[in-house]
Amino acid sequence: MFEFSLFPPQASTHAINVDWIYLCLVGITIFFCLLITIIIAVFAVRYRNSVEVDRSNPLTHSTFLEVTWTVIPILICIPLFYRGAQLFFEGNSPPPDAMEIYVVGKQWMWKIEHPAGLQEINELHVPMGRPVKLIMTSQDVVHDFFIPAFRVKMDVLPGRFTSLWFEAILEGTYHLFCAEYCGTEHAGMTGKVYVMKPADYQQWLSGGIVGEDMVTAGARLFDKHGCKTCHMNPDLQRGPKLVALPGSVVRLKSGEALVADENYIRESILDPKQKIVEGYEAIMPTYEGLLTETEVMQIIEYLKSLEEAQGAKNPGTAGVPGGSGSDRSAVKADPAETTLETSDE
Questions:
Q1: CA–centroid distance for 104 within its chain
Q2: What are 35-79's pLDDT values in tens digits?
Q3: Domains of the chain, CATH where assigned
Q4: Given the DSSP bridges, would you call strands 249-251 and 257-259 parallel, antiparallel or unpaired?
């Protein structure tokens, strides 16, 4: 039997809330469209030209009407705005224990890498019932990562990281689209999202063709480009220590204080002279053109593992170390010791 549905299945925790506010907006729109249409029809019949109506003293002003058509929309819009704002902040605040997966968009495909080293093209496997955070960037133009069944969508931008998160609650296979026109093959930039039971997901991870995990790859790149000399060698150190950098507060020479998120670390690697940390000089060279977006992600994952290792030495101050890139807690370091911009690597 043919089945037709106006909406994709509600396959994530976001879906029911997004659908609720969407249906409220649609219902309100239909109600007022019908109301206005009926009023127009009644007035067209009641006050048509052939009907005798006293038009000698037409009304030019009605305070009651003006107050009514101002107050009613306000009373309708405020709850909708409030709920919409709640959903916006919830959708941009992933749980601290969310599993992190890295995504690179390029014409015209999605390259996805799990911290354990398993890579996918135009496919994404995730466990059911666990929050997943996607850390995304573009290798060329603006893309948009869109999973209709999860009701999540986020621009994927060149030169910076964006992120989205979801928690899948319904096992199955779902569509993945690029929702931003990105060139001649834009319509073909599609894929599949596979939601699996946790045990099946672990079996899939262990059964896939796993390359070098992201932490190991990042450590190799960190060593290859001489970063250890300036950041890890106590005798030759010219740049601050990087342990517990991700998520910590960094103070700049300009007096500004900012959080060392993925975008900050990426910029510090590729354009290190943009944000100079207080107490250090701008002597670190740029790695623009020397590292791919995937390699930058691997270095970031390695730096996050340093945070975990520090937490293992100091139980109770950080998350349990692990290769998955998740279950991390920020370890706050001295702001003067957290940056990348000051080594001569």
A1: 13
A2: 999 999 998 888 887 777 776 777 778 888 899 989 999 999 999
A3: 7-44+94-211 (2.60.40.420), 214-337 (1.10.760.10)
A4: antiparallel
